[in-house]
Amino acid sequence: MLLMVEQAICGCRNIKRGRHLNPAQRNTQLDWELRAAVRGFVASICASRLVVADMSELVRVTSVLPLPNLAYWESLMRNEFEFGLAQSTRSAPEKGGWRVLNSFGRPAQEAEPHRFLTWIDLSSWNGHVRERTLRTLTGPAPNSFFLSLAVRRLNDWVPQVRAAAREAVPRLAQATDPEQVVDMLCAMLPTWTSWGRVDPSDKQVMMELVSMKAVASELKRRVTGSPCGPMTAVLSQALRTAALDGCLMQIAEEAVQPVVRAVAHRTLLAGKAVWVDGHSWRWIDIRYGRKRLDHMFAERPLQEVPAFLDVLNAAAADRSPIVRRIAAQALVREMGHLGEAVLPLVRRLAEDASPSVAERGEFILKRLTAQVG
């Protein structure tokens, strides 16, 4: 109740100040559906006691929640779950001393050992419960939401929980539907470079998921066919591993989003994959405490690279000027090694309808004509 009052007060303050609320906070319908599903799950736990509780309604509601707002949904679900357990414990003291698991202020050793741990316990306040849940969960994840909760434990503030997540996440992903794994990857990969607690072994766990054959196939289909979403960030992060090297040319030719085709063509023309590996602060003016957050990049050579001229011709013939500009930039970089064989392609770029592409084509044409003359 206190949490709801605080959220209402904050919401009123934000409206008075003209600030935009988080999309998850504006969608009160999903909020109340999630709260109701958690309350129903708590009632099921209290009724069944030693029998596994019914999660069907909770799974149905969480299946439609937008994963980019996962931190908000997790916090809402955790607070409602803990509050519901505390309420049920106080209202039913006659149940043989049944105590709430991980209630506020209770030491870890007092946690009730007889209650079955479920997927919702991945968001528990108690690090011991989160670790024990990861080590006991088996079988496929109910949906991409709960799989994402397990993956988020790779960035947990408790080292033992992170270690348990490194062991559990590959096992759970192997048993889960590849489409749900890809749903999780499309939500996690664009932002996971901001996780401050992951180490190389945690990153390797994510790349193991991308390298799974069924997951890589579904991820290629999703990157190619999605008309919206951060697919460029997903593709660049997935290229940390060689799972998509063999189908990169297909992505470059068939992707719906022009920026995805541009990233794929640029990667093929450069012969290497480049991705954002983290962030670091750089001082701009230390006297005034001014600094800027810069990207840290990493790269690796591609294992399968088509012929340079084939990729160049495909990029120059693309329907989007964004991709054709990538071809022109590659020609500027490599024009000293290509010779007269690319003159027809250069003339076509010089006559391009896009001014930025035509400008580069004219520059290359002048240089090549001077060399030949």
Q: What do you see in this structure?
A:
- With 373 residues, the chain is mainly alpha-helical.
- The chain is built from 18 helices and 2 strands.
- Among the domains are: 77 residues, no CATH class; 67 residues, Leucine-rich Repeat Variant (Alpha Horseshoe).
- It has a two-stranded antiparallel ribbon with strand order 1-2.
- The longest helix is centred in the N-terminal third of the chain and has 22 residues.
- The relative contact order is 0.05.
- The N terminus is likely disordered.
List keywords for this structure.
single chain; 373 residues; mainly alpha; Leucine-rich Repeat Variant; two-stranded antiparallel ribbon; 2 strands; elongated; disordered N terminus
Q: Rounded to an integer, what's the Rg over CA atoms? A: 26 Å
**Mean model confidence by pLDDT:** 83
* Order of the strands making up the biggest sheet: 1-2
- Main beta sheet: 2 strands, antiparallel
What would you call the shape? elongated
Approximate strand percentage: 5-15%
Task: Give the helix proportion (percent range).
Answer: 55-70%
Structural class: mainly alpha
